[in-house]
Design a protein that fits this description.
Elements: H1 5-8, H2 13-31, H3 35-47, H4 49-71, H5 77-100, H6 103-123, H7 133-150, H8 154-162, H9 168-193, H10 199-221, H11 227-247
Length: 248
């Protein structure tokens, strides 16, 4: 299929991409986070950032849609909608950087973001300050620009939302709703700005069954050991992906 990087190299890129995607799905299933952050540094090296961003967003969107159906009633819309809207406004800046900045620099930036996030999680730091609207909008804008440039817009949002003194179900619902709303807009923006990146949707369709299978298996494994064990396994995989992005 024209433009598909995976089908153009089924004996090389396709095998490695499928393996990484399966591990990312496993991690999403047993740890509940990190699939995009695991794939981003590796895919940036294998396929380039312009292909990687819509590819990952297109795989994450259907998973997010399924989760959103069950979580929508717990969403704090007054908090999520302003943050999502400002993220969408900031996305064109991120798309400009995606198309303008050198591929090698972007790949290393993606890897650095992932490694920094792993370090923050590993030491157990959490934001404990207030959540005024100005800060909420700033976090949303930073996340939107990062999503469009690197597909890794999760760290600022996750650290900010997880700090909220609210029931876990509502925090989870807010996170699901935010990424569901923003990922579709991200896909459209990248397709409009870089029409040749439409091939990434083809590759996303190829890899989607792999990530869903991995996620299903990971969810079956969850609960068989302490949650902290799964999280440290996730940290190791994320750190390995970040190092690969830096040296690859």
């Amino acid at each position: 299929m024209a433009g598909s990087l995976l089908l153009a190299d089924p004996g090389g890129i396709l095998i490695w991409a499928a393996l990484v995607t399966f591990v990312a799905g496993l991690m999403r299933g047993f740890a509940g986070f990190g699939s995009a952050m695991l794939m981003a540094p590796v895919f940036a090296v294998l396929m380039g950032p312009v292909h990687m961003v819509p590819l990952i967003a297109a795989m994450e969107f259907p998973m997010g849609a399924m989760l959103f159906v069950g979580a929508r009633r717990d969403v704090e819309w007054g908090f999520v909608v302003p943050m999502a809207l400002i993220a969408m406004v900031a996305m064109p800046l991120g798309v400009w950087a995606l198309l303008s900045v050198d591929r090698t620099i972007l790949t290393k930036v993606v890897a650095g973001i992932v490694l920094a996030f792993v370090a923050i999680l590993a030491i157990g730091w959490r934001y404990r300050g207030p959540r005024p609207m100005a800060l909420t909008l700033g976090i949303g804008a930073a996340s939107g620009a990062m999503m469009a440039t690197s597909s890794v817009g999760g760290p600022p949002i996750l650290l900010y939302m997880l700090a909220a003194a609210r029931p876990a179900a509502r925090i989870r619902a807010d996170i699901i709703a935010y990424f569901f709303l923003t990922s579709f807009v991200l896909i459209v923006l990248v397709m409009v700005a870089a029409p040749h990146a439409v091939a990434a949707i083809v590759d996303a369709a190829i890899l989607l069954p792999v990530v869903l299978l991995g996620s299903w298996i990971g969810s079956r494994l969850a609960g068989r050991a302490a949650d902290v064990h799964y999280r440290w396994i996730a940290y190791v995989f994320l750190a390995a992906a970040g190092v690969f992005g830096l040296v690859g």
